[in-house]
Amino acid sequence: MSPARSRYVDLVVTILAIVAGVAALVILVHDPAEARAGAGWRWGVMVLALALAGPLHLRLPGGFDASPVAPAIGLAMVLSPLIRLDDYVMRSALVVVGVIVGTGIGLALSALTGQGRPVAAVISSRIVGAAAAAALFRNVPWVDGKAPARQVEAWADTPWRMAVAMTVCGAVAVLIEMGVLVLRTAPIGRIDSQAELVARELGPIWLAVLGIAVAIALGFGPLDLWSVPIMASPLLLMRTALRRQAAIAQVRHDTIEALSRLTDGTGFTTEGHGRRVRDLTRLVGTELMLTERELRDLEMAAMLHDVGQLGLSDPLPGGATSEAARADQVAIAADGAAVIREFGGLERVAEIVELQSTPFRNVREFGEDVPIECRILKACNAYDDLTQGREEMRPSALERISLGMGYEYDPDVVDLLSNLTRPAR
Fold first, then answer.
1. Distance between CA atoms of residues 242 and 125, nearest Å
2. What pLDDT digit, counting tens, does each position of 2-25 carry?
3. Per-residue b/e over 104-124, b at no fewer than 16 CB within 10 Å?
C-alpha cells in the first residue's frame, strides 16, 4: 500500500466523520426538546445493542477485520422507523448521533475486554456511510419527488418498494466503507486488484450485513425491537463460523512454521534461512506493489521453498539450492510443491515454489509465464544462500548475483534487492 495515500484517506474520512457528527449535534442542540422527544427508549435500546455488538469484531485469515453484527445494527437504526418525528432532518441527526454513541461505547468495551479495536478510519467510514444513508433515506427526494422515508403510507400496498429503497440506501453505506478500505490498502496502481480482493474476502459478509439490516428495519413494524435479536441471530452464527475459519487458518500457519523449521533442524539449511528469505521477499514484494494477498502467498512460499530438500539423501553444501545443478534445483522445487499441495488450498504457494528455479531468460527469450513472486523468491533465496545472514558477505553476494542478471535473475528484482539490503548509515 502507499503510506502517503493511506494517511490522506484516513485524514479525509476522519474529517468527514467529524463534520457529520458536528452537523448532527448542531441540529439536535437547535431544538433540544424535539430531540429529547425523538430519542425515546427504543432509540436507547438500539444504541445499547450497537454498543454491545462492538466487541464482536474479529480478524479474518486474509488480514481484514470483520464485524458483521455491529454494522448491521447501526445500518438498521438508519433505515428503521425507530424515531417518529415530523422533522425528518431531526430524525437523521438522531440516528447519526446514535451510531456515533453506540460505536464509541462499543470501542470502549472492546478495549476493556481485550478484544482490540478496529482501525480509526474504518470506524470513521462507518459513520460517514451511516450519515449518507440516513440523508438519502430520510431527506433526499429521489423517489417520486420524495425521500423513501416519507413514502410509508403511499407504499403501504407495495411494501417491496420500501425494501428496495432501503437496500439502495444501505448499499451506499456499504460501498463507502468498502471503498475506503480499498483506497487505504491498495498498492499504487493496483486499486482494481485490491477491489477484487476486498470484494472476494468481505463481499459476502457485507451482503449479509445489508440484508439483515433491511430485514431488521422492515421487521420493526410487526415485531418492534424483537426484530433485532431475531433477525441478527444469523450474523452471530456467521461470526462463529468465521472464528472457526480463522482458527483453522492459524493451525495451518503454525504447521507451515513448523515445517519451515524442519529443514533447519535436520541440517538441510542454515539456521534462520527461511525466515530471512521471507523477510527479504516481503520487502522486495512491497516495493513492487504486490497486494497483501500476493505478499502472504509469497511469504508462505519463502518459508517452504526448501521443503523439497527433505527428500535428498545427502544435504546440499550449506543448503544452498541456488548453487545446485539445474536438474537438482528443478527436482527440489517440484518435490516441495508436491508437499505443499498436500495441505489443500495452497495451490498458488505451490506454484511459486515449483517455478522458483526457472531462469529469467525463459521469460525474456521464450515468453514463459513466470509470476513475479517466483522471480523475487529466486533472487532473495540466492542472496541468503550466499550471505547466510552475514552482512559482510553482501558485496560478494550481490556481485555473484549480478553476473546472472538478465539470464538467471530478474534485473528489476536484483536492483531492488541491492537497494533494500544496503546498510543504514
1. 23
2. 667 788 999 999 999 999 999 999
3. bbbbebbeeeebebbeebbbb
